């Protein structure tokens, strides 16, 4: 039983990076960066992998360091995924 649980946990960890590589890039405009909370607000286009329409919303940053690369008004491309139940930006580029 212990071996099965360990195998399942390992498979889950190994699959996570594969999901990030397959997530589509979405275009958007940064509206606000909240480094203290590790979040950013983005006015974005549709996010197909999350079945979301275009809107403005707050995302958690997968890596707080990514928040240092953007500011309000920046045009970006990013990937967003559900991580531990929260919609999270996993990759960002200007």
Describe the structure.
The chain has about 90 residues and is of the alpha+beta class. It has a single domain, classed as Copper binding periplasmic protein CusF (OB fold (Dihydrolipoamide Acetyltransferase, E2P), Beta Barrel), CATH 2.40.50. The protein is built from one helix and five strands; from the N terminus they run αβββββ. It has one helix spanning about 1-20; strands spanning about 25-35, 40-45, 55-60, 75-85, 85-94. Strands 1-2-3-5-4 form a five-stranded mixed beta barrel. A hairpin with a 4-residue loop joins β1 (about 25-35) and β2 (about 40-45). The termini are far apart. Residues about 5-20 have low confidence and may be disordered.
Care to give the gist of this entry?
The protein has 94 residues and is of the alpha+beta class. 22% of the residues lie in helices and 41% in strands.
Radius of gyration equals 15 Å
Q: Spell out the CATH superfamily.
A: Copper binding periplasmic protein CusF
Please give the CATH class.
Answer: Mainly Beta
How many structural domains does the protein architecture include?
A: 1
Report the structural category. alpha+beta
Proportion of helical residues: 10-25%
- Multimeric state of these chains? single chain
Helix and strand sequence: HEEEEE
């Amino acid at each position: 039983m212990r071996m099965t649980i360990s195998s399942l946990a390992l498979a889950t960890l190994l699959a996570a990076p594969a999901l990030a590589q397959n997530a589509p890039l979405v275009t958007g405009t940064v509206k606000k960066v909240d480094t203290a909370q590790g979040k950013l607000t983005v006015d974005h286009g549709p996010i197909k992998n999350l079945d979301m329409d275009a809107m403005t919303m707050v995302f958690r940053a997968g890596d707080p360091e990514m928040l240092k690369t953007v500011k309000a008004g920046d045009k970006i491309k990013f990937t967003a995924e559900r991580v531990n139940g929260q919609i999270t930006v996993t990759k960002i580029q200007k």
